[in-house]
Design brief:
The chain is mainly alpha-helical. The chain is built from 16 helices and two strands. Helix 2 packs antiparallel against helix 9.
Length: 336
């Protein structure tokens, strides 16, 4: 193989190419989801709503992990914040406007993450991961033990919200697979566009510089602490919004949303799709949701199967699905 072929197929070139095409891949995926109601069953559409919730959360998680290089093992905490915000506002305070719920979830997630992040982002690698895990477990314990406030292991009910101030008729399934489905997709697209602008801005460039070499970035004037904290807060806001969609879909805010295994699922999705790419984590969320549903339907040992998939992925496809496909495409073009 020629030197030019090697250069074209290099991981750096693949990452650059996928950054350019990542937004279009994400929007194309959302467009396919928008056409799905024409052919899919109501169950399939209900299955896609968790994908949208996880997809939004992973846009933020990937800013922290893939762009900044900080791996959080407690990121499900913010999905829990969003879910319980929706539950409290709808069932305890009677606020049903979904727009107000989203704003409240985003603001509360930002506030919580600001407090936690001011401690966590001072550290990197395993120390950052362990601190986020610790805060996640503390939050889960709070949700689980304070029954009078959170409902304990029973969780809190999430009432059907109003979309754009309008009350939609029909049963729960009709609401979720109709107006709420398209509302969530549009929200996913808008947040995807916003995240694309963030990653392509000078702020995103600073985050990538921090990921590659924090010492050199600090030497040229990048404010490491402030940039990491900003990335942590933004990722938490996306997590809170994603958690809100998950809670409305199930009609319940459950403590398990904030459990450490749920944080592990987020990491699994990001790695599965390819954390080094823009659209990769969203692809990973889709594959994870569909695969988990299929495996759970055929065997009670679904955790063993999902764990085996993760092991094989790390060994044979360390760049994830999107990264591997991009590498193969770049290699084919280089050989052509």
């Amino acid at each position: 193989m020629s030197q030019s072929s090697v250069d074209i197929a290099s991981p750096v070139t693949v990452r650059r190419t996928l950054r350019v095409n990542g937004l279009w891949v994400l929007l194309a995926l959302i467009a396919v989801m928008a056409l799905l109601p024409l052919a899919a069953s109501p169950y399939a559409l209900l299955l896609m709503l968790p994908f949208v919730g996880y997809g939004i959360a992973l846009l933020g998680f990937n800013l922290l992990f893939g762009t900044t290089g900080l791996l959080s093992f407690g990121h499900a905490l913010f999905l829990g914040v969003g879910a319980y915000t929706a539950a409290a506002l709808t069932s305890k305070f009677g606020i049903l406007s979904f727009e107000l719920i989203l704003i409240a979830a985003a603001l509360l997630s930002a506030l919580v993450s600001l407090v936690i992040g001011m401690l966590c982002v001072r550290y990197t690698r395993i120390f950052f991961g362990m601190l986020t895990l610790a805060f996640g477990m503390l939050f889960h314990s709070f949700l689980f033990k304070f029954y009078a406030v959170t409902g304990g292991d029973q969780g809190m009910r999430v009432l059907r919200p109003l979309l754009l101030g309008m009350e939609w008729r029909g049963g729960k399934t009709a609401f979720l697979t109709g107006p709420f489905y398209y509302y969530a997709l549009i929200l996913f697209a808008l947040l995807g566009l916003a995240m694309w602008r963030i990653t392509q801005s000078p702020f995103g460039l600073h985050l990538r510089a921090i990921r590659e070499n924090a010492g050199k970035a600090a030497y040229v004037g990048v404010e490491i602490f402030r940039m990491r904290l900003a990335a942590f807060v933004i990722s938490a806001v996306y997590g809170g919004i994603g958690g809100t969609i998950l809670a409305v879909t199930t009609g319940l805010a459950d403590p398990e949303l904030a459990y450490w295994t749920h944080s592990g699922n987020l990491v699994f999705m990001a790695v599965l799709g390819g954390s080094g790419t823009f659209a990769g984590p969203a692809i990973g969320a889709l594959v994870f949701v569909v695969l988990q549903d299929f495996v759970m339907a055929v065997t009670q040992y679904w955790r063993f199967v999902m764990g085996s998939v993760l092991v094989l992925l790390v060994i044979f496809m360390p760049q994830g699905l999107a990264g591997t496909i991009g590498y193969l495409v770049a290699r084919r073009d280089g050989e052509g």
